[in-house]
Amino acid sequence: MPSHLVAALYHFADLPDYLALREPLRAVCAQAGVKGTLLLASEGINGTIAGSREGIDAVLGYLRADARLAGLEHKESFADTPPFARLKIKLKREIVTMGKPGVDPRKLVGTYVEPAQWNALLDQPDVLLIDTRNDYEVKVGTFRNAVSPQTQSFREFPAFVDQQLSAQKQRPIAMFCTGGIRCEKATAYLREQGFENVYHLRGGILKYLEQIPPEQSRWQGECYVFDERVALGHGLTPGRTRLCEACGQPLSLAEQSAPDYAPGLHCPHCVNTQSEARRAALRMRRSQRES
Hints:
The chain is α/β, with parallel strands linked by helices. 31% of the residues lie in helices and 22% in strands. It holds the Pfam family UPF0176_N.
């Protein structure tokens, strides 16, 4: 059994004192031996942490002891090696950055659909399935027949809605993301814009891959995650996608086998775009590792 428990968590809450929450939370995480990244904002908390079962339980218990975070949801998976090198607790304007401060999922949001009912929703006629994630995440895997907004940042999502969906406000729209948080804001934004039939996958792709057996799954590929595992498959087992250390692009098995891929130096995405200074720095880093 892998020894590192990974917990992806988020909760929208009114936290006007979020600046003062950082250092006490940092101390609790440090004492529990937990690492990862947590975002704090006036609208709530978001992030992924890893550690022992006891350590993760201690941090989650500390957070939920605050009545404003009592309903905090988390999803669990496992890693054979530590997925984070350090602990980072960042103060942000938003816990998922859309750039629309007035959008509040606590006031207006789409209809949640449990993973067990997701396939049935997708089978309904005229449902438009939208992947709310960014293009590099979609590349690693997505649901069959899903539309990608082709965004590089979630800030671009409202423009996609305004430009490409505004004429389809009566159409049933189903949306999904990694763990559920982006869909909270995405569905809230659509509802504010007058869309009537908006649905989103509760718990996101991670919960779907955890609960739905491969033979019943509509998922194709792997799910990109923001830690050193890079991607997960069905049952939340580590995938085979790797990151290019030079440019950060996720690489499929085919790209890892390409002539232009040299671990730590370049991949097919960046081999022709690096400056000589960048190439020299990467060669130096690689030689230091091998020495």
